């Protein structure tokens, strides 16, 4: 009866639930119960073939080769491809998926990390009276709610602040954000609200207060995109889908339809990228879910096929966590060139982006320096002048390619709506293209519906609404406490494992080695400042990680958070994987080099390292030069014109500071531009000039010399009288 009373108090107007005060609590309880019923319905009668342990990659490859014929072969292991695999296998279709690189190695791991309907798309829909865009936003908001429900460990609601600097904008933005809430209807995460200037600065103290009149806060979702993608793929594997990464399609298989006489697809000839072995995978239907590479597979099917995908590059940067509050994002709705910039807390860091520029399709997109500078300029506009936004604070940067669907003659990618299309070729190749991360499930459902209809396959209805993903079933917000109590893990590490793996965190904890310390008892970190532990490398192999890059970028997110920390962790990751996978020394060296190139080019290490080079110019005034000269000569006692590790070690010992010799070599090597084992005065001035300009912000040598100088000066300033006398 309580539910009925709640429903009587709830009226739906244009898809918006409007409740009275008396029925609100009952309606909330009703919604929770309905969500539980949907979940139960989704999981009912679904057999989880591999509930205890995932089949190995070798077993998956064997299944691909030994199965006489699959119902569906999906090409592409991003969010959409993995979503198609999960949708198909839970409808009792024999399902296969191949990915030529790693799962989520492309666009799906390089997003803004938001699960959202798209505020700017709703604005365009209203301004242009575009019903199609309106429905896309409405669908995305429904999918947002579902994704937060089925993977609560990997996702969470995030408040996002929209600062307002002109009084007339306040009602304009307020109406737009309230419309966003209304379109979400019963799927609205939390109601948006207004903030006064003082409250906005209280919540976001880094904000530029000049001319600020107030702010509006609304809610969207945030997730760990690569691990979310992986969770979808692993869930499909547990239900019986044969999935394999590093397996590429060499060419499509065709046969003649005996009834029509036309050619039709019957599978694909594939190659294991790691071993070079080639084999056929037979299937009644082939699905093209290759994202930016959509046209490549379509033209493999039919050479003269017109292109339908126009790629757009989106660059993001990662900055230290102190640039944003722990639980409040920021939206810049109108940048200097009309784009939208998000400034969000993520994994205890701050992510800023994105750009939107036409690009060529490549498997290895590189973040451009001008895009990084553009984001930094926009960030400076919104942060207080007290916060110095430095180029040296960019810890990582990456570029992702959006697979936008458009007319081939269109030139402006910014005006393109990210709607998706499902097309079927003459030979039966079913292509799913376009769309956005948030709507992957709905896109997969529509695709598999098209497969079933076109090929007349016997299958039940879609079961993925409410279907919990890998790690979600036993997860609770307090799961990390059990990890601390049962295994002796650090609290920060336990929280990380719980959010990254859900209830599978216990499997990771069981693999953790004893530290030999009083605390933590288990869990050796890969690098000191991040909660990733060595056991995750071993568990990553069970999750089909095949390379060091897979671990750095997608099983952990270290490569996306801090390229220098990732570079430091790399040798140990290769060592652990090499031992577990029996790699030769040649293979280990190859993995090291490949991962370093990945960090250097794709994760922004190149831009980071090029801020201090032989050709760097010195921009210091006379007083600065003299100050740094005095500092340098405190270490260069013999006036050689350079300092070595011996010089630095001597000074450090005099002030009772001890640094490992290998670490000291690394510190000097960062500034030794000539690579001759010493830091010359000219190199030191280049370093200090770069530090002053904000190009370098974390030079260990600069900080070390400055702190040592301060200690020496303090000692020299103590007089005989103040020291208690003497002879």
From TrEMBL:
GO terms for molecular function: calcium ion binding; glycerol-3-phosphate dehydrogenase (quinone) activity. Residues 623-658, 659-694 form the EF-hand domain. Its EC number is 1.1.5.3. Pathway: Polyol metabolism; glycerol degradation. GO terms for cellular component: mitochondrion. It comes from the Eukaryota. Keywords: Calcium, FAD, Flavoprotein, Metal-binding, Mitochondrion, Oxidoreductase, Repeat, Transit peptide. GO terms for biological process: glycerol-3-phosphate metabolic process. PROSITE patterns: EF_HAND_1, EF_HAND_2, FAD_G3PDH_2. It is found in: Mitochondrion. Pfam families: DAO, DAO_C, EF-hand_7. Its cofactor is FAD. It catalyses: a quinone + sn-glycerol 3-phosphate = dihydroxyacetone phosphate + a quinol. Belongs to the FAD-dependent glycerol-3-phosphate dehydrogenase family. Calcium-responsive mitochondrial glycerol-3-phosphate dehydrogenase which seems to be a key component of the pancreatic beta-cell glucose-sensing device. This is Glycerol-3-phosphate dehydrogenase, mitochondrial. It comes from Poecilia reticulata (Guppy).
């Amino acid at each position: 009866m309580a539910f009925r009373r709640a429903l009587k108090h709830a009226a739906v107007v244009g898809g918006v639930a409007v409740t009275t005060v008396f029925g609100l609590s009952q309606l909330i309880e009703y919604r929770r119960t309905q969500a539980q019923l949907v979940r139960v319905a989704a999981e009912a009668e679904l057999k989880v073939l591999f509930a205890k342990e995932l089949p190995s990659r070798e077993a998956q490859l064997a299944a691909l080769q030994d199965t006489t014929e699959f119902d569906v072969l999906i090409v592409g292991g991003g969010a959409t491809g993995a979503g198609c695999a999960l949708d198909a296998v839970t409808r009792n279709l024999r399902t296969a998926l191949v990915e030529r690189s790693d799962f989520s190695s492309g666009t799906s791991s390089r997003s803004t990390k938001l699960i959202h309907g798209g505020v700017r798309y709703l604005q365009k829909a209203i301004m242009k009276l575009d019903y199609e865009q309106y429905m896309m936003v409405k669908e995305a908001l429904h999918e947002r709610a579902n994704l937060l429900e089925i993977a609560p460990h990997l996702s969470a609601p995030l408040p996002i602040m929209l600062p307002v600097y002109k009084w007339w904008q306040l009602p304009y933005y307020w109406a737009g954000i309230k419309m966003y809430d209304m379109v979400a209807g019963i799927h609205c995460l939390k109601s948006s609200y207004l903030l006064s200037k003082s409250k906005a600065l209280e919540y976001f103290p880094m904000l530029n207060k000049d001319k600020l009149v107030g702010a509006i806060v609304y809610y969207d979702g945030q997730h760990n995109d690569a691990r979310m993608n992986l969770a979808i793929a692993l869930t499909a594997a547990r239900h019986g889908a044969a999935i394999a990464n590093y397996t590429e399609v060499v060419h499509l298989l065709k046969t003649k339809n005996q009834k029509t006489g036309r050619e039709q697809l019957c599978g694909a000839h594939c190659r294991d990228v790691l071993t070079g072995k080639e084999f056929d995978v037979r299937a009644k239907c082939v699905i093209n879910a290759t994202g930016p590479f959509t046209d490549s597979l379509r033209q493999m099917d039919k050479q003269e096929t017109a292109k339908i995908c126009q790629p757009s590059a989106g660059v993001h940067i990662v900055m230290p966590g102190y640039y944003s509050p722990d639980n409040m994002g920021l939206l810049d709705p109108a940048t200097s060139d009309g784009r939208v910039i998000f400034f969000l807390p993520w994994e205890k860091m701050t992510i800023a982006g994105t750009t939107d520029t036409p690009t060529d399709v490549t498997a290895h997109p590189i973040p451009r320096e001008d895009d990084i500078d553009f984001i930094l300029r926009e960030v400076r506009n919104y942060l207080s002048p007290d916060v110095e936004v430095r180029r040296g604070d960019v810890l990582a940067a990456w570029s992702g390619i959006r697979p936008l669907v458009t007319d081939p003659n269109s030139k402006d990618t910014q005006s393109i709506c990210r709607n998706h299309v499902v097309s079927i070729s003459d030979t039966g190749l079913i292509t799913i293209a376009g769309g956005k991360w948030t709507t992957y499930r709905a896109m997969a459902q529509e695709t598999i519906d098209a497969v079933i209809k076109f090929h007349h396959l016997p299958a039940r209805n879609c079961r993925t609404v409410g279907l919990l993903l890998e790690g979600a079933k036993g997860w609770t917000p307090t799961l990390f406490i059990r990890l601390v109590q049962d295994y002796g893990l650090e609290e920060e590490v336990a929280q990380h494992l719980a959010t990254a793996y859900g209830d599978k965190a216990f499997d990771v904890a069981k693999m953790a080695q004893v530290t030999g310390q009083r605390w933590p008892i288990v869990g050796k970190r890969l690098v000191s400042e991040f909660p990733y532990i060595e056991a995750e490398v071993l568990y990553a192999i069970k999750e089909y990680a095949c390379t060091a890059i897979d671990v750095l970028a997608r099983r952990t997110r270290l490569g996306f958070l801090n390229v220098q920390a990732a570079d430091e962790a790399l040798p140990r990751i290769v060592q652990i994987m090499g031992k577990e996978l029996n790699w030769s020394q040649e293979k280990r060296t190859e993995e090291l080099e490949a991962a370093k190139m990945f960090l250097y080019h794709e994760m922004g290490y190149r831009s980071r390292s090029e801020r201090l080079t032989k050709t760097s110019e010195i921009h210091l005034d006379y007083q600065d030069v003299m100050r740094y000269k005095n500092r340098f000569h405190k270490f260069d006692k013999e006036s050689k014109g350079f300092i070595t590790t011996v010089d630095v070690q001597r000074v450090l010992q005099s002030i009772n500071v001890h640094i490992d010799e290998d670490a000291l070599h690394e510190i000097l090597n960062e500034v030794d531009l000539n690579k001759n084992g010493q830091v010359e005065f000219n190199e030191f001035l280049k370093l200090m000039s770069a530090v002053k300009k904000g190009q370098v912000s974390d030079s260990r040598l600069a900080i070390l010399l400055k702190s040592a100088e301060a200690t020496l000066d303090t000692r020299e300033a103590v007089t005989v009288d103040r020291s208690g006398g003497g002879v």
